[in-house]
Amino acid sequence: MTTATQLSFIHRFEAGANLTAPPVLLLHGTGGDENDLIGVGRMVAPDAALLSPRGKVLEGGMPRFFRRLAEGVFDEDDVKRRANELADFIAEAREAYGLPAPLALGFSNGANIAAATLLLRPEALVGAVLIRAMVPMSEPPVANLTGKPVLILSGSMDPMVPAANADRLAAMLKDTGADVQHRTLPAGHGLSQADIALARDFITHASGAIVSGA
Ligand code: MLT
Q1: What is the pTM of this model?
Q2: Are the beta carbons of 145 and 178 closer than 8 angstroms?
C-alpha cells in the first residue's frame, strides 16, 4: 500500500499502463479513505492511472470531503471551499505525477464533492461518474461544462437520496452543457455490481473519445 502525504491531500497514486488515458480521480464516501475505491478503480479503468485522495473533514472520526449540518443538509460555504481545495490538489498532483486532467469517479459524499468541483472548477475534471449523488449547492455558479461526459447512477431504493434531488442534479448539469446520462438502478445507497459495469462502459467510451479528441 502506497499512501502518500507530500501533496495537500493524503492520497494514493497508482500508475497506469496507458499514459494518454485520463487518470481516474477516486472520491470515497463518508467514513472511507484513499484505499477504499482502488479496487473499483482498477475494475472500471484497468489501464488508467488512479489518484485517490482522503477527504479532510472528520465527522465523528469519519473522513468526508465537506462538512454537513445533518444527513443531506450541507454546509454550502464549506462545500465551496473544499471543492476549490480539491481542484487545487488535482492541479498539484497533475504536476507531480505528470498527468492529464482526470475523470472523477465519486461515491456518495465523494460524488457530491465531484459534482461541486465540476460546477465550481470545470477545468479540473474532464468528466465524472457520480454514484448516488445529490445536489451539492442550492445556488450553483454559472458554469460552462459543454460536452463534458457525466454519468449519474442513482438507486431507486436509496433512502438517502430522493429521486427528485438526483433529477435536479441531472438537470443542473445539463443546463451547463454537460453531456449527462442519468440511470436509476434497482439498488439502495450502496455500490452494486451494476454500478461497476455501467461505470466501466462509460469510462471506456469517454476516455476513448477524450484521447481521440472526438
Ligand atoms: C453527503 O453528506 O454528502 C451525503 O449525505 C452522502 C453521505 O455522505 O452519506
Answers
A1: 0.97
A2: yes
